[in-house]
Amino acid sequence: MQATAFTYDPETRGGSVLLDDGTPLPFDAAAFDAGGLRLLRPGQRVRIRTDGDGPTRHVVFITLQTFPDA
User: Fold this and answer.
1) How far apart are CA 70 and CA 66, in angstroms?
2) What is the pTM of this model?
3) CB 3.0 to 4.6 Å from 3: which of 17, 24, 38, 64, for a disulfide?
């Protein structure tokens, strides 16, 4: 699934993305580390995997579109 990076905190390596319908989803350091990223800028298009439903839905993997899937 694709999304757009919305927020990113380099201290915690967490943040949020916006799905194409505008829905925000959070990600934590584990999701960030799983994607092999070193930095993420708001506005970048990313590829994500999610887990959970409704209000518990969150990102478990985030990487750039050009990076390989882990």
Assistant:
1) 12
2) 0.89
3) 17
Structure tokens belonging to residue 45: 């298009």
CB-facing half-sphere around the CA of 52: CA atoms within 13 A:
10
Res 68 pLDDT > 90:
no
Q: How many residues are given for the chain?
A: 70
DSSP 31: H
pLDDT in tens, 14-65: 999 999 999 999 999 999 999 999 999 999 999 999 999 988 999 999 999 8
Distance CA 20, CA 22 (A): 5
User: Within a 13 Å sphere around the CA of 54, how many CA atoms are in the beta-carbon half?
Assistant: 0
Q: In whole angstroms, how far apart are CA 46 and each of 13, 29, 53, 66?
A: 15, 16, 20, 9
What pLDDT, on the 0 to 100 scale, is given for residue 69?
73
